[in-house]
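Hi support team,

I've been running sequence recovery on a batch of backbones for a student project. Most finish fine, but this one hangs at about 90% for roughly twenty minutes before it completes. I'm not sure whether the input is malformed or the queue is just slow. I've pasted the C-alpha cells below so you can try to reproduce it. Let me know if you need the job ID as well.

Thanks,
M.K.
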C-alpha cells in the first residue's frame, strides 16, 4: 500500500499518531530550506564538525573514510507505530482515537463490507462471470483509516488495491460491481480493466495500474513539503486473479498471520472492548452485508454490457478516421461470426 495525498494536513483516526511520529522524524532530520542554510553555516563556522555532510537531507550524517557496506541485518529497522494490538486493546492510552462510536461503526462496516464484496467478486471471477479481480484483504484498515482522516473533497490518487477509500466515501456497491462487469451503467463502460474505479463526484481519480504514477501526481504541498506515510500491512490474498502467490510465499504463514492479526478482526475486538458492538450485532451485520452484496451483484449481472462500439468512442472529441475504419471492420467481423459472440449480453450499438 502506497499512497500520497494532495492534502495530508490531518491524518488521524487509525493513522493519527503515526503521522505525528513521522512529522517529528522529518522535523529532526531537517527538510526545510531554512534548516539547510543554518546547518551549512554551522559547518563552515565550527572546525570540529568539518567532517559533517553538507548535503541537504544528510545534514546530520558524518563523512567517513572507511568503506563499509550497510547490511540490513546490521542496522536497526525503523520502528513500526501501532495503536491497536492484536487483542483490540490500545497500549498507549493517551493515543486513544477521539472518534465517536458511530464513526467507528461506520469504519468497521466499510471494512467488512469490502471483505464481503471481495469474497463475492473473487469467486465470481473464478466462475468466469467477470474477467479479472484484485482483493483488498489485509489492507482494508489502511484504506478506511486514511480515508476517514481526509476531507471528503481531497483528491485521491489511489493505487489499484485501494477500493476501501471509495467505499468510505460512499461509492455504491453496484458502482463497484458494474465496473467489474464493464456493463453499460458503469462509468468506464468496459474500456478499463475491472477494479480500475474512478469517481469525479467522490474526488477519486480513476485508478491507473502503472505503479507509482500516483506519487508525483499527488505530492502534497501542504506546509510546503510532502508527507509520506508508509503503512505496513500484509496482502492476504493473491496479487490478483492472474497470480498464485503460493509460488513465492508460504500460504500457511499468510493464513496464520491473517488468523491472529486480521485488521477487521482487530477493530471488531476493539469495538467489543469499547462496548459499542457485540456478537449479536455482528452476526446480523454479516447477514445484512452478504444480502446487500448478493442483491447488487444479481442486478449488475443482469445489466447489459455497453455496446461494442463503446471501445472506439470517447477517445477523442470526434472519432478519428482510423478509428472509424477499425470500428467498421470489427462490426463486419462480428456480423460474420455472430454465433461466436454472446451478443445478447450487449446493448445494441447506435452508430
Ligand atoms: C511501472 C509498472 N511496472 C510494472 C507493473 C506490473 N506490476 C503490476 S503489480 C506489480 C507488483 C507490485 O507489487 P507490490 O507493490 O508488492 O504490490 P502487491 O503485489 O501487494 O499488489 C507489478 C510489477 C506495473 N503495473 N507498473
Amino acid at each position: 500500500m502506497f499512497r500520497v495525498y494532495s492534502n495530508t494536513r490531518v491524518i488521524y483516526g487509525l493513522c493519527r499518531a503515526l503521522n505525528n511520529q513521522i512529522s517529528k522524524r522529518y522535523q529532526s532530520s531537517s527538510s526545510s530550506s531554512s534548516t539547510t542554510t543554518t546547518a551549512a553555516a554551522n559547518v563552515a563556522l565550527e572546525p570540529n564538525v568539518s567532517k559533517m555532510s553538507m548535503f541537504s537531507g544528510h545534514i546530520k550524517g558524518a563523512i567517513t573514510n572507511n568503506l563499509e557496506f550497510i547490511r540490513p541485518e546490521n542496522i536497526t529497522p525503523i520502528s513500526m507505530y501501532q495503536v491497536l494490538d492484536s487483542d483490540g486493546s490500545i497500549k498507549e492510552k493517551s493515543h486513544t482515537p477521539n472518534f465517536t462510536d458511530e464513526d467507528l461503526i461506520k469504519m468497521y462496516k466499510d471494512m467488512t463490507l469490502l471483505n464481503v464484496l471481495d469474497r463475492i467478486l473473487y469467486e465470481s471471477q473464478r466462475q468466469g462471470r467477470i474477467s479479472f479481480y484484485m482483493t483488498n484483504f489485509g489492507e482494508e484498515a489502511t484504506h478506511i483509516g486514511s480515508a476517514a482522516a481526509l476531507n471528503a473533497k481531497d483528491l485521491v490518487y489511489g493505487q489499484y488495491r485501494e477500493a476501501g477509500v471509495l467505499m468510505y466515501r460512499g461509492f455504491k456497491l453496484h458502482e463497484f460491481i458494474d465496473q467489474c462487469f464493464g456493463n453499460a451503467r458503469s462509468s468506464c463502460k468496459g474500456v478499463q480493466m475491472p477494479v480500475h474505479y474512478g469517481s469525479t463526484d467522490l474526488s477519486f481519480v480513476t485508478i491507473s495500474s502503472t505503479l507509482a504514477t500516483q506519487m508525483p501526481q499527488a505530492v502534497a504541498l501542504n506546509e510546503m513539503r510532502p508527507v509520506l506515510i508508509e503503512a505496513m500491512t500484509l496482502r492476504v490474498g493473491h496479487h490478483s486473479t492472474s497470480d498464485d502467490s503460493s509460488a513465492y510465499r508460504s500460504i500457511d504463514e499468510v493464513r496464520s498471520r491473517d488468523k491472529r492479526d486480521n485488521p477487521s478482526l482487530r477493530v471488531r475486538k476493539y469495538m467489543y472492548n469499547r462496548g459499542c458492538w457485540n456478537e449479536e450485532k455482528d452476526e446480523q451485520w454479516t447477514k445484512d452485508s452478504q444480502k446487500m452484496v448478493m442483491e447488487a451483484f444479481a442486478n449488475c449481472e443482469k445489466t447489459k454490457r455497453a455496446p461494442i462500439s463503446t471501445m472506439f468512442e470517447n477517445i477523442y472529441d470526434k472519432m478519428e478516421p482510423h478509428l472509424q475504419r477499425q470500428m467498421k471492420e470489427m462490426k463486419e467481423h462480428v456480423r460474420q461470426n455472430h454465433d461466436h459472440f454472446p451478443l445478447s449480453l450487449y446493448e445494441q450499438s447506435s452508430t
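--
Follow-up from support: It reproduced on our side and the slowdown came from queue contention, not your input. The chain has three domains: 24-74, 93-302, 308-345. No action needed from you.
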